[in-house]
């Protein structure tokens, strides 16, 4: 029996390895496809003036399928002054994450302009735009490699000390240090399994290491437990200090301190202002806020006998 078990078990290992490699390849091709959708303009120069990187969207119109597809953004204009935070809220599908993808230049827009420090992102090198921006995404993709590799991905060539100090700042160091091989522990299916919150902390550590002047936080839709959520929010606020930041928010508690809040609906900005201004307006934001204060509806009371 054992003679049969060992080869079968071995086959299982090979199968998982191949499956994982295919998953990684698939992710890589998805990214490469996106790369191919935009190209550097002839003679494009790198972005300059990154000490004061104001971000501006001016009349942005966008459809994922430019040949007659649905228009997802219908003339969006806003500014994130250098070092400030702008938050975007609105129902699912309203176009919030699309703003982030366009700023990173995964796609080119059909009308309008997106500028960083006064330079249109279409006119400068794609690599310099991506170098200037750090993204903490909803679902962090971790490579089937060591924790150290996954953090250093933010800045290849970073030293062990730099990796550890980024992990400490993202409050994931103690967790990593307690794993059997510490930073050399492999993550993924056959290694260290990370929760949603832990993965996000790895993404924060990556971003801290990259230290870009512009940040995008795409908040997780899946609810973390509230202690974890508060801790991550505090860490994100620390990272965002003095950086030009776009927050795609799914919970209003994250946006209260933003320089400006944009309320989106079906590709348009329907309200905008600070938290206090939007509450005073008594419109969509104010009703979203009061709904969120009430919390989830209570379970119906048991019928009286
Ligand atoms: P959520 O809060 O659920 O993350 P969102 O406001 O961020 O939603 P987006 O992800 O920006 O919404 O999507 C806006 C619209 O664009 C949706 O209707 C979505 O179906 C569509 N969309 C998103 N990505 C693509 C894509 N790659 N190709 C075609 N349509 C897309």
What does this structure look like?
This protein is an alpha/beta fold. The chain has ten helices and ten strands. The protein is globular, with a radius of gyration of 22 Å. It starts with a helix and ends in an 11-residue tail after the last helix. Residues 64, 72, 90, 92-98 line the site of adenosine-5'-triphosphate. It is found in: Cell membrane. This is ABC transporter ATP-binding protein/permease.
Any ligands, ions or cofactors bound here, and which?
adenosine-5'-triphosphate
Order of helices and strands: HEEEHEEHEHHHHEHEEEHH
End-to-end CA span: 61 Å
Kindly name the structural category: alpha/beta
Transmembrane segments: 1-15
Domain ABC transporter: 55-291
Subcellular location: Cell membrane
Protein name: ABC transporter ATP-binding protein/permease
Write a compact overview of the structure shown.
By secondary structure, this protein is α/β, with parallel strands linked by helices. The chain has ten helices and ten strands. The radius of gyration is 22 Å and the shape is globular.
Task: Using brief descriptors, characterize the structure shown.
single chain, 305 residues, alpha/beta, four-stranded antiparallel beta sheet, 10 helices, 10 strands, 39% helix, globular, binds adenosine-5'-triphosphate, ABC transporter ATP-binding protein/permease
